[in-house]
Each structure stands twice: as C-alpha cells, then as structure tokens.
Amino acid sequence: MTEFSALLVLDDGGPASRLVPLAPEALDAWLRTASERHRSLVAAHRFKAAAGEVLLLPGDAPAELLALAGLGSAAPGPFALAAAASRLPPGRWRSTAPLPLLGWLLAQHHFTRYKAATNAGPRMLLASEPVALRDAVAMAEATALARDLIDTPAADMGPAELAAAVAAQGRQFGATTNTIVGEALIDANFPLIHAVGRAAAQAPRLIDLAWGDPAHPRLTIIGKGITFDSGGLNIKPGNSMGLMKKDMGGAATALALARLVMQAGLPVRLRLLVAAAENSISANAMRPGDIIASRAGKTIEITNTDAEGRLVLADALALAAEEKPALILDFATLTGAARVALGPELPALFTPDDALAADFYTAAGATHDPLARLPLWAPYADMLKSPIADMVNSADGPMAGAITAALFLKAFVPAGQPWAHFDTFAWNSAARPGRPKGGEALALRASFALLTARFGARFAR
C-alpha cells in the first residue's frame, strides 16, 4: 500500500515550491500582487481557477516553482488538491492556505499489484497538526484498502483470499477472526451462504471478526463478499459479467470501515461479518425453483440465481440480529436497479429509521460523501410472496428492483433493530482527480462520521 504518511511532511522551514489554491473570486486579488511575468502567463494560459485547473509558473528562485490550483466556486471538498497532487512534479510544496488533504493523498495512490509503481510524487509541507494529519492518512489508507481489494481480479481474490485480508487487518488491531468454511456452514446453520457458493472451486465461508470491549455498545458491520458473480444458472451476458470482480465491493467497504473503527479506537464492541462466496456454475449449483432454508427459519424459493447477494446477507443479518446490537450496517453491490435510479456516484441508503437516515445525511454533507435514501415501500413486499415458500428471492418483473431487494433483507432484521443498508456500486466508472476508474469505497467517509458522532469521542491515539 502507498506510504501516505510520507506524502505529508512537517514543515522545517526549508526551501520549497509554493502551491497557491485559488477560487475564481480570489484570482483578481492574487493577480494584483503578482509579477508582470506571472500575470502574463496566467492570461496566456487562460487560467480561471476553475476546479481542477493547475498552472505551473516559474518561482522566485531558479530551483523553485509556483503552482496555482483552481478550487472552483463551491466550498473546497476533500478532493480539492487532488488535481494538483496528480500533476505537480516531485519535490517539496508549501501551500499558502490549509485545505483538506485526502485528495492530495489518494491522487498519489495507484493499484500496483500487476504493474510497476510510478515515481514518487510531490510532498506537502504541513504545520504541526498531527491529528489532522493522522486522520487524513487513516482515511486514505482505508480507502486504498477497499480500492485495492475491489480492483484485484477474482483469480487472486476468492473467498479464501478475502478471508485472509480480513484476518490481516484484524491482527493489526488485536481483533480475533473466526471463519466457517464449506460444509461446516450447514452444521452451523448458514444454509443460504452455503447454497450460493457450493458450486465454486473455492468453498464459501462466513468471516467473523470481533474487536473491542464487550462492555461497550455493539456495532455490527456486514459486507457482501461475492468474489465473482457469473449469475449462476441464470447466467449473466458477457457485457454484464466483465466487472463482477467488484461484487465483493460491499465487503471491501465494510472492512475499510471496520479498520477505521479499530484504528480510531471507537468505544464499541465491533463485529464484522463478511459472507464470502463465488456464484459459479457446476452440476451442484443452486437452481431456479429450488427452495432453501435460511438461518432465520424462513424458506426461500429461488426465482433467480443471479439474485444471490441478498441470500448470503440474509444469513449474516440473522446472525447479527441475535446479539441485538446498537446498530447494524450492511454494504452490498446488490442491484443494478439502484444504479438506474441514482447512477454510479450515489449509493442508495435504506433504513426504516428516519432519525438514522437524517444522521446519515448530516454526516454525508459534512464529509462531501453523497448518498440518497430510497424508501422501504411496504406494499412492494407483496412482490416477494411465494405460493410454496415463505418468500421468493427475486420479484417478477423489472420494477422497483432496489426496493424489493432491500425489503428482502428487511425480512431478516427484527422490528425495532437499528439497521441501515447501502446498495453501492463500489466503482468509479470514469476517472476524476483522486478517484481513478476502478474500485471505490462509496459512503465510507459518511459512515465513519456517523459512527464517531453516534458512539462518542475517539480514544487518544
């Protein structure tokens, strides 16, 4: 992983090039104090301080540079310096104004498992702000962790490798991890997880991480860990299968959030549950028409083997609810319908708790991490009725797909249990500064902000 802390250096007063962040309304004032040469270059390059604009100018000394970084008219968000970080040459840079650092860090992170790392990038000199520095580095590390896991192809990120990644993160913070694998899932009463993954070469598994003081409020985070989704016997067309290495994006986001909780020392008893399986095809694959029991006792008629993520989550939610935690959050790349409704950048939030939804919106606004709530419209639960089982796993027809999937999950969460479900794309479909095309931890910053607000002050680090 990128050594993010090396990209931020405490200012020793030594030589450095200058980085000048500018909003359009501040450009004229800066030009009035600039040299004639700089004014001429700004005019020649038609620099307007629009968001993402970067202009390199010669500095006052031969070895120094001056960089203007456009902020745009909106309030600077966490990626305000991302374009600058990706375009500036290596060296020491001193900013004339303090700005969020996350974009500076993530713009210099690259997925390098299969390709050589790029050269070292620019370093930012900081005043003595260790808490802000640590927080920025921690968020960058968690985001990069999720991105790297999602970007790894299924040949190298199956259920076993996902379990190893969870255990490795847990070991850093003294957590314990237990994994139930293969046929042991039947004995432990996780029949849906077993059914989804039994056709794959790698056995399915439930990964269960525990951390923190048992006397603290219980927080359970759940991730959908489908490491590749062929669609099963309801096989996906090729153009829909190409990105299915990212179908464990919910698990990657859940693990990144768990890492932040542990690293910050939040006063909670954390439980991370990842239901990991590959939805594959073989002679023993689950079939349309099969009826499968669940941990909660409900029977499920399989109407679509490509609606598998909600099945593994159902068993994990049932397990989580047995402890009656203070909050359950689940993350899943669950439906294409959510993307049709909201596009790739807005994860869909579902919760029956209006106060919890309001808190998420507050956290999303504060962290510039957008989300959108969709309704758990109760009448649509009729679409999940089965004449021969307690429910079907996929409603008939193309309408309200994200809502009916969330209602399926809700059936495994007891009434009154605080719970929120994120239907996330977990992917950047187009590159933006600090956000390359590929895996993404959507709603991570908002979720962590909500948890820190809800469960109290962090411990000293």
TrEMBL record:
It holds the Pfam family Peptidase_M17. Residues 304-311 form the Cytosol aminopeptidase domain. One of its GO terms (cellular component) is cytoplasm. It is an enzyme of class 3 (hydrolase). Keywords: Aminopeptidase, Hydrolase, Manganese, Protease. SUPFAM superfamilies: Zn-dependent exopeptidases. This is Leucyl aminopeptidase.
